[in-house]
Amino acid sequence: MPILLDGKKLASEIKEELKNKTIQLKSAGGKVPHLSAILVGTDGASQTYVNAKVKDCEEVGFESSKFVFDDTITEEELLHEVDKLNNDDRVDGFIVQLPLPKHINVDKVLSAIKPEKDVDGFHPVNFGRMASNLPAYIPATPYGVMELLKRYDIPTRGKHCVVVGRSHIVGSPVSILMGSANYPGDATVTLTHRFTENLEHYTKQADILIVAVGKPGLITADMVKEGVVVIDVGTTRVADATKKAGFALKGDVLFETVAEKASHITPVPGGVGPMTRAGLLMNTWLAAKNEIY
Ligand code: GUN
């Protein structure tokens, strides 16, 4: 049986570390980190994510605030809200929850966030700094993936890492980090995406396979080699009447059969998801301590 990469356990360890550091900071008279979140509209998943982020802050003793707007908000009004948080000294970092309504230019909004407060790491300045191996906010999910590899001591130097999915939030930054001159990193990276021909030709060569697509069951056992390390970033809500919430979270990897061949694998839920949440807290801590800029 493979080693399960237990993101839930690791995330609670990271939260415990942050909680203790916050207690020390407070008793030394320091300013407690403050995370703000902007949420536009009533998308169920987005509401859940933002509420979870606020709850995480409470758990580690951070301050937080949430700004909710109707999906009729104009781009100009939203840019104004971003600017208010940019200039609010009480707020160390903030996020604009995605997706945004279609009438709003996402790139424009993300670029309006002050890089120093961009704890999601989505601003082009942070992306560029990350790609240049300069101190930067690493987006929360890539942070979570890297931290899982690191805390389980998984060797990455010289390994072939195949990334499936080239999103701006996960696949693209993860491929940069895995190829960078760091640990985890120093890997030979193949970035595959929707136009990749013969996907299994690449996935079968992976020593480390990182999948971030959002298609349940995309990766099957015949597509991987024995001993592969599998990181499944997919979390798709699939209707399931037996669950209290009415849905189950499904990864991109067909877990049962792929697990039989893997040396290490993340479960869904309980793998990358909790680590993503820990990543945002870590960035908020760094923002409060001015450790990046
Ligand atoms: N939507 C899905 N994932 C994310 C994330 O990490 N940050 C933000 N702001 N929105 C998201």
Automatic annotation (TrEMBL):
List residues binding NADP(+): 165-167, 235
The entry's keywords:
Amino-acid biosynthesis, Histidine biosynthesis, Hydrolase, Methionine biosynthesis, Multifunctional enzyme, NADP, One-carbon metabolism, Oxidoreductase, Purine biosynthesis
Q: In which pathway does it act?
A: One-carbon metabolism; tetrahydrofolate interconversion
- Please report a single Pfam family linked to this protein: THF_DHG_CYH
SUPFAM superfamilies from the UniProt entry: Aminoacid dehydrogenase-like, N-terminal domain, NAD(P)-binding Rossmann-fold domains
Please report the stretch or stretches of sequence annotated as the Tetrahydrofolate dehydrogenase/cyclohydrolase catalytic domain. Answer: 5-120
Similarity section:
Belongs to the tetrahydrofolate dehydrogenase/cyclohydrolase family.
Q: What is the recorded function of this protein according to its Swiss-Prot or TrEMBL entry?
A: Catalyzes the oxidation of 5,10-methylenetetrahydrofolate to 5,10-methenyltetrahydrofolate and then the hydrolysis of 5,10-methenyltetrahydrofolate to 10-formyltetrahydrofolate.
Per its record, how is this protein called by name? Bifunctional protein FolD
